[in-house]
Prior knowledge:
This protein is of the alpha/beta class. It has 3 domains: 2-40 and 56-76 and 203-278 and 379-424, FAD/NAD(P)-binding domain (3-Layer(bba) Sandwich); 91-196, no CATH class; 280-372, Polyamine Oxidase, Chain A, domain 2, CATH 3.90.660. The longest helix has 24 residues, at 107-130. The chain has helices at 10-21, 61-69, 74-77, 107-130, 132-137, 143-149, 154-169, 178-189, 193-196, 205-208, 210-219, 262-269, 337-351, 378-381, 407-424; strands at residues 2-6, 25-29, 41-44, 47-50, 56-57, 78-81, 84-89, 95-98, 198-201, 223-225, 230-236, 239-245, 250-252, 255-258, 280-289, 300-304, 310-313, 321-327, 361-372, 392-394. The model has no long low-confidence stretch (mean pLDDT 95). The strands form 5 sheets. The protein has a 7-stranded mixed beta sheet, sandwiched between helices. It is 36% helix and 24% strand. Bound molecules: flavin-adenine dinucleotide (FAD). Flavin-adenine dinucleotide is lined by residues 6-12, 29-32, 37-39, 52, 54-56, 229-230, 259-261, 264, 268, 283, 285, 367, 370-371, 396-397, 405-408, 410. Flavin-adenine dinucleotide binds at residues 6-12, 29-32, 37-39, 52, 54-56, 229-230, 259-261, 264, 268, 283, 285, 367, 370-371, 396-397, 405-408, 410.
Amino acid sequence: MTTLIIGGGWSGLAAAVTLIQKGHSVHLIESAKQLGGRARNVLWHEQTIDNGQHLMIGAYDRMLAMMNLVGVKEDDAFHRFPMDITIHDTYYSPLNLSANSFFPWPLSLAWNLIRSVGVKGFFSVTKLQSSIPSLLLQEDVTVSEWLLSTSQPARLIKQLWEPLCLATLNTPIDHASAHLMATVLQDSLGKGQAAADALIPSVPLAEVFPHAAAHYIQQHGGSVSLKTRAKQLVIEQNKVTGIICQDGSTFTADNIIIALSPSQSIDLLAEHIEMNKPSEYPICTVYLQYSPDTRLAKPMLGMSGTSSQWIFDRSEQAPGLMAVVISAPGEHEEMSNDVLIKHVCREVHSLFPELAETVSDSLVIREKRATFACTVGIEKQRPQSQTNIEGLWLAGDYVANSYPATLEGAIRNGENCAQSLLNQC
Ligand SMILES: Cc1cc2nc3c(=O)[nH]c(=O)nc-3n(C[C@H](O)[C@H](O)[C@H](O)COP(=O)(O)OP(=O)(O)OC[C@H]3O[C@@H](n4cnc5c(N)ncnc54)[C@H](O)[C@@H]3O)c2cc1C
């Protein structure tokens, strides 16, 4: 009995690995010429970079377990750092959310917060944190409404909550779901120090999981076909029996897992299943090549009051290479690449004068549909993995779970979908 998996992103690969591990026969098809989907390698000149800067955290336990299963050691793929976020603002002094101190966790965090935002600011943060249980029992509201109801000061909103909301939910605070933001905060800050560690990839993204996953699938008798686009599902008497591809080829299967982004899934399923179409928001990564001896004071730094939101030091991959991240919609979308590069260089230089105002090379990668928008009430709109068509299953980051669009969410949904399918066999 073969299962066909459509989509070679992290979710489809996780589903395939889970099925193969349980002795199931698997064929995965991917429309692109490479695996990885929204977390993939891109060739720039002669070097391999990421389609967009990704940050993982220690709480991504299913992702780490899945990597381990396919033979990738954490130390070979990531640099793990204790939480140490400094956000530089155009007006306020830097804000520090850091576990680096002589106090044990979570006192370390409290100590550094008090030092950067004072006792009053610290109590505002604890007020927000302690409101989470009751927030989750009520109807969802926007993050802005939640911040207002817990009397967060303007500085914390601008320099902490807004940047964290954009980084985790890729959605502006005026639209973002407070429930989802609260869940992310609980998961990253409420589960001990290791869960809050930052994991920054030290190798290109496809080496973190997709390549090893494909190798595992093939080694265990499964197959992976690239450049193969599913065009149409074949459904007879409410049972899926196969697909027709764009090149006219056909595949039959007893079970099919669709592991695509929300809009891609909706396109393929349009005739058969009604699904809510969420908005999808962009993420833009601007790579800036400074002189090879340029380094940031920390592996990543936050920025507020600017279009640029985070800067990551990618010197390990190319000395002096920095990746600047701009999440969610914004005025940067209207700028040409040349204008945007100059704009970002100026902003970076104004907050970090040690970084030159001009660079020797640069690249803009705009992922227009990077993630589904985590708007209020989104949790009720996400589909379950089992559909009402026999043999047809859904994976992908958008399928229901308590995470926003993340690699951990994609892996969880791939694994859970495969497990539900196995339970039915
Ligand atoms: C720029 C950027 C930055 C991000 N930053 C972070 C971060 O810091 N931390 C984090 O955890 N997450 C981050 N994310 C989100 C994360 O990358 C996604 O949640 C995750 O990659 C989604 O994986 P997926 O397998 O669900 O979907 P996808 O990766 O979209 O996989 C779907 C796959 O299906 C293929 N496909 C499409 N149509 C067809 C078809 N008809 N037939 C066959 N194949 C098809 C696609 O080519 C693709 O490979 C970021 C995303 C982007 C774009």
